[in-house]
Design goal:
Layout lengths: L6 E3 L2 E3 L3 E3 L8 H9 L5 E2 L16 E4 L2 E4 L8 H10 L6 E5 L4 H14 L3 E6 L15 H14 L4 E5 L5 H12 L4 E6 L3 E5 L1 E2 L4 E2 L7 E6 L3 H14 L4 E5 L5 H10 L3 E4 L1 H6 L2 H17 L15
Parallel strand pairs: 3-16, 4-7, 7-8, 8-9, 9-10, 10-15, 15-16
Antiparallel strand pairs: 1-2, 5-6, 6-14, 11-14, 12-13
The chain binds succinic acid (SIN).
Length: about 300
């Protein structure tokens, strides 16, 4: 049986549904190139700000038995670095520019420049970084999110996407979906960013394991898979004419399959990529193909969004 794991969406073609989550293997040109040369189906940059940022004090990432906790604080090279990378980018593999201005004006400045350059790369506007001390996640403020999307749609008259924080209540899924559905240029949402402000404690030292924010940080990996799947599922249903990109807890073909079954168009890999490196893409793709073969599916469309409920 011949299998086809390619994805065509928004005029782009990905040979595999898997790519990196913003934040992992994407801060420097060298890291981005590793993803570009890997089996990943696309490449996304680190969320960029107007100016370069060193990020939060170390230690700011820790692997745990169930995944990871991080409070990186948006370390990045500044948006011009990523625009330069995008200008030189010459690959059929889609490129996404993750944007996370420290203010809405900063985000608009970055998007205005991106639009002027007419680069074939799609912005993923980050509404959900949980790691900026004193700055709440925009995606949890529905009115402020609507205001930001209004301004972005006015200034950047092209398709774009947003990265959302996890939501935990049907009322919040519905409220955010109502906001998102009002913006036709918003073509995709990435669900989810890390589950913000968890606390991992080391029993022996009786200490938090990361330094910023008194130890609070975003959780990824096994901790977040069911939350990620719920967000993918709910937004896939509520945002009928938009794409949902799944992110959270993918470490094998099984979780990638679940994200697509829940409705994901494509699937990002974060914690597992951080731990394993870009060879994770080959492995996960091969595992996904084996699951599809065993179930008799030839294409991702054969099962995408077809979650059964009891
Ligand atoms: C970070 O740099 O703190 C992570 C970015 C994010 O979670 O949006």
């Amino acid at each position: 049986m011949s299998l086809n794991l390619s994805v065509s969406w928004l005029g782009m073609k990905m040979s595999s549904p898997l790519f990196n989550a913003s934040g992992v293997y994407c801060r420097t040109r060298e890291e981005l190139e590793q993803v570009r040369r890997s089996a990943a189906g696309a490449v996304v940059t680190k969320s960029c700000t107007l100016e370069p940022r060193a990020g939060n004090p170390e230690p700011r990432y820790r692997r745990t038995a169930l995944g990871s906790i991080n409070s990186m604080g948006l370390p990045n090279e500044g948006y011009r670095y990523y625009l330069d990378y995008a200008q030189a980018y010459d690959d059929a593999k889609p490129l996404f520019l993750s944007v996370s201005g420290m203010t809405l004006d900063d985000t608009l400045t970055i998007l205005t420049e991106l639009a002027a350059l007419k680069l074939p790369c799609l912005p993923e506007v980050n509404l959900s970084c949980p790691n900026l001390p004193g700055k709440p996640q925009l995606g949890y403020d529905f009115a402020a999110s609507a205001e930001a999307l209004e301004a972005i749609s006015r200034r950047y008259a092209r398709p774009f996407g947003v990265k959302l924080p996890p939501y935990f209540d049907p009322a919040h899924f519905a409220a955010m979906a109502a906001v998102l559905n009002a913006f036709p240029l918003l073509r995709f949402v990435t669900c989810i960013n890390s589950v913000g402000n968890g606390l991992v404690i080391d029993l022996d030292s009786e200490s938090a394991v990361i330094k910023p924010k008194g130890g609070l940080g975003g959780l990824g990996g096994d901790y977040v898979l069911p939350t990620a799947l719920a967000n993918v599922r709910e937004f896939a249903v509520l945002l009928a004419d938009k794409h949902v990109i799944g992110c959270g807890g993918v470490k094998s073909g099984a979780e990638a399959f679940m994200h697509i079954l829940a409705g994901a168009t494509a699937v990002q890999v974060g914690t597992c990529l951080h731990e394993e490196g870009v060879s994770a893409f080959d492995r996960i793709e091969a595992e996904l193909a084996a699951i599809m073969q065993a179930k008799g599916y030839q294409r991702l469309e054969d099962f995408r969004g077809r979650l059964k409920t009891l």
